Amino acid sequence: AQSVTQLDSQVPVFEEAPVELRCNYSSSVSVYLFWYVQYPNQGLQLLLKYLSGSTLVKGINGFEAEFNKSQTSFHLRKPSVHISDTAEYFCAVSDSGGGADGLTFGKGTHLIIQP
Amino acid sequence: DTEVTQTPKHLVMGMTNKKSLKCEQHMGHRAMYWYKQKAKKPPELMFVYSYEKLSINESVPSRFSPECPNSSLLNLHLHALQPEDSALYLCASSQDPRSPRGYTFGSGTRLTVV
User: Which residues in B lie closer than 8 A to residue A60 (C-beta atoms)?
Assistant: First the structure.
């Protein structure tokens, strides 16, 4: 079974500073990788996904992530954060081997933007 | 329509009640999922329906009973729940269960068991 590790449970960042949220996954032949954001009392919103092709993936709200197969990582980055980016961020993996096995989530990283 | 709609948004129920959560999508997705999310935790997979058939049951207690009446609807029937079942219940769908390339989540039902 796939697994995902988000090393940081909480990341405080000043407004307009850059941020990187780390995600590592267990190695597999091929995987689909996702980043979701969850604002308080809401569901999950897809930020971006890696399925195949270019290792640099651009998403919504100015976020991007880079798939690194040798390091089994899929870190999320934003060059300049805004107060509205305060939320919980989940990295998730799906086995592309077929079958509706759903997503496996990391424990989440709480991004705190400080004015 | 690119949304997954869940109703109700909030539900308070007693331990002897029977209630149902509903999920609906009109994107033609053929896989639908129920997740449970406790506070400050990631979502945990409960059930997967693939082409209206239950394909995964992650050892969920029988007081939770899923139902997929058709390809657009997914229900979760609740009976004799415990206070520890209080959580956010999320529904999701994906286009093709044979190659899940993207998942769309609903905004969830926040359930409180008293």
Answer: none
